[in-house]
Amino acid sequence: METEQHEMYEYARRRIKQKKSLYFHFVLLFLGGIFLFVANKLLNIGEPTNWYIWAITAWLFIFILHFIKVFITDSFMNKNWEREQINRLVSMQETKIEKLKNDVENQVKTQ
User: What is the mean pLDDT of residues 11-31?
Assistant: First the structure.
Protein backbone atom coordinates (compact mmCIF):
# COMPACT_ATOMS: atom_id res chain seq x y z
CA MET A 1 0.00 0.00 0.00
CA GLU A 2 1.37 3.38 -0.96
CA THR A 3 1.93 6.07 1.64
CA GLU A 4 -0.92 8.26 0.40
CA GLN A 5 -3.36 5.34 0.32
CA HIS A 6 -2.25 4.33 3.80
CA GLU A 7 -2.83 7.87 5.10
CA MET A 8 -6.29 7.92 3.50
CA TYR A 9 -7.08 4.55 5.08
CA GLU A 10 -5.88 5.71 8.52
CA TYR A 11 -7.90 8.92 8.23
CA ALA A 12 -11.04 6.98 7.27
CA ARG A 13 -10.49 4.50 10.10
CA ARG A 14 -10.05 7.31 12.63
CA ARG A 15 -13.19 9.13 11.39
CA ILE A 16 -15.25 5.95 11.62
CA LYS A 17 -13.98 5.40 15.16
CA GLN A 18 -14.92 9.01 16.09
CA LYS A 19 -18.42 8.66 14.63
CA LYS A 20 -18.94 5.29 16.31
CA SER A 21 -17.93 6.83 19.63
CA LEU A 22 -20.36 9.72 19.08
CA TYR A 23 -23.25 7.37 18.28
CA PHE A 24 -22.45 5.34 21.39
CA HIS A 25 -22.40 8.56 23.41
CA PHE A 26 -25.86 9.45 22.04
CA VAL A 27 -27.33 6.05 22.97
CA LEU A 28 -25.76 6.32 26.41
CA LEU A 29 -27.22 9.83 26.83
CA PHE A 30 -30.67 8.61 25.83
CA LEU A 31 -30.65 5.56 28.12
CA GLY A 32 -28.99 7.50 30.94
CA GLY A 33 -31.63 10.22 30.66
CA ILE A 34 -34.39 7.65 30.94
CA PHE A 35 -32.67 6.09 33.95
CA LEU A 36 -32.27 9.47 35.67
CA PHE A 37 -35.95 10.28 35.05
CA VAL A 38 -37.06 6.92 36.42
CA ALA A 39 -34.75 7.27 39.42
CA ASN A 40 -36.20 10.70 40.25
CA LYS A 41 -39.88 10.18 39.48
CA LEU A 42 -40.62 6.50 40.00
CA LEU A 43 -38.02 5.52 42.61
CA ASN A 44 -38.41 8.85 44.47
CA ILE A 45 -34.66 9.49 44.69
CA GLY A 46 -34.25 13.19 45.52
CA GLU A 47 -38.02 13.56 45.10
CA PRO A 48 -38.71 17.17 46.13
CA THR A 49 -36.60 18.50 43.24
CA ASN A 50 -36.29 17.65 39.58
CA TRP A 51 -32.52 17.21 39.68
CA TYR A 52 -32.57 14.88 36.70
CA ILE A 53 -33.26 17.85 34.41
CA TRP A 54 -29.98 19.49 35.45
CA ALA A 55 -28.04 16.25 35.07
CA ILE A 56 -29.46 15.57 31.59
CA THR A 57 -28.85 19.20 30.55
CA ALA A 58 -25.20 19.02 31.62
CA TRP A 59 -24.79 15.68 29.84
CA LEU A 60 -26.47 17.07 26.71
CA PHE A 61 -24.04 20.02 26.72
CA ILE A 62 -21.11 17.59 26.82
CA PHE A 63 -22.69 15.59 23.98
CA ILE A 64 -23.07 18.78 21.89
CA LEU A 65 -19.37 19.55 22.42
CA HIS A 66 -18.53 16.01 21.32
CA PHE A 67 -20.74 16.42 18.23
CA ILE A 68 -19.06 19.73 17.33
CA LYS A 69 -15.62 18.14 17.65
CA VAL A 70 -16.49 15.18 15.42
CA PHE A 71 -18.57 16.80 12.69
CA ILE A 72 -17.36 20.39 12.58
CA THR A 73 -13.85 20.80 13.96
CA ASP A 74 -12.29 17.54 12.76
CA SER A 75 -13.99 17.64 9.37
CA PHE A 76 -12.02 20.69 8.21
CA MET A 77 -8.95 20.41 10.45
CA ASN A 78 -7.71 17.16 8.96
CA LYS A 79 -4.35 16.00 7.61
CA ASN A 80 -4.59 18.23 4.52
CA TRP A 81 -5.22 21.28 6.70
CA GLU A 82 -2.24 20.33 8.90
CA ARG A 83 0.01 19.95 5.85
CA GLU A 84 -1.08 23.32 4.45
CA GLN A 85 -0.39 25.03 7.77
CA ILE A 86 3.02 23.38 8.10
CA ASN A 87 3.96 24.30 4.53
CA ARG A 88 2.81 27.89 5.06
CA LEU A 89 4.83 28.24 8.28
CA VAL A 90 7.92 26.63 6.73
CA SER A 91 7.75 28.95 3.73
CA MET A 92 7.40 31.96 6.05
CA GLN A 93 10.46 30.82 7.99
CA GLU A 94 12.44 30.27 4.78
CA THR A 95 11.48 33.74 3.58
CA LYS A 96 12.66 35.27 6.85
CA ILE A 97 15.92 33.34 6.69
CA GLU A 98 16.55 34.51 3.12
CA LYS A 99 15.81 38.10 4.12
CA LEU A 100 18.22 37.86 7.05
CA LYS A 101 20.92 36.35 4.79
CA ASN A 102 20.45 39.17 2.29
CA ASP A 103 20.62 41.77 5.06
CA VAL A 104 23.85 40.25 6.41
CA GLU A 105 25.37 40.08 2.91
CA ASN A 106 24.42 43.73 2.27
CA GLN A 107 25.99 44.80 5.55
CA VAL A 108 29.20 42.91 4.77
CA LYS A 109 29.38 44.49 1.29
CA THR A 110 28.92 48.00 2.64
CA GLN A 111 31.70 47.65 5.17
Answer: 93
